[in-house]
Structures are given as structure tokens and as C-alpha cells.
Predict the 3D structure of the following.
Amino acid sequence: MNTETKIKHVMTTKVVAVRPEHSIMKLEELFEAVPIHHILVTEHNNLVGIVSKLDLLKLYRKELEKSNTLDRSQILVQHIMTPNPVTLDCDDTIGLAADIFLSNTFHSLPVVDGKELVGIITNHDLIKFAFQH
């Protein structure tokens, strides 16, 4: 595997995104409809955050431990997203992406061209690439 391969040749360009003002019910619908684990949060195609299935599970667990009734229509994406996530540029290398994954606990990185969101790369994408080449 050539670790100098550019991210743009490996990333997923069909990005699933929501807006910060969407409720978490929208996240639930998307996670159920599409086989993904991360949803990007955008405003005018600019990345502002990211939400994972684990973020939702943590929210549910926290509320369950408090015995709270959760009104999912009132909780907004902006309240559970990770704001300003680490990103890669489309011309960065898969070696850099692998280094970031290995030194952190997250499993996806949004890919930007300037400020514009152009894709996402996951650790799964890197494994798939490694075994196809």
C-alpha cells in the first residue's frame, strides 16, 4: 500500500450531513436508513461538526441513568455534535490519515477543500484500500 496516496482517491464523496438545528430524531432516521456511523454537520456546505452513533448512545445512557424522559424532538444536533472536528485536506495522504486514526479515538475524518466539505474518510476506507492494492 502506498501511504503517499492522496485522500481524494480513497475518500467517500457521498456525504451524509445534517444542520445544527436539526433534532436528534433526524440523526436517528439517517443512521437507520444508511449504513454509516458518522454524520457530518454543515451550514452552507461548510463543516461545523460531526456526530457519531456513539455520541447518541452516550446521550441516551446519560439520560437513562438520570431516569429522565428524553424528548428527542427538542434536542438539537448542535448540543451533541463535536464542533470543529479534525479535518484533512483532499490532497493530504492516507499515511497522514492513518497516523491521525492511530493516535486518536475517532474513526472518521471529514475532508475539506479550503473550507468546503468534499468528503469523509474512515478507518474502514483505509483498510479496504489496503487490501484492494
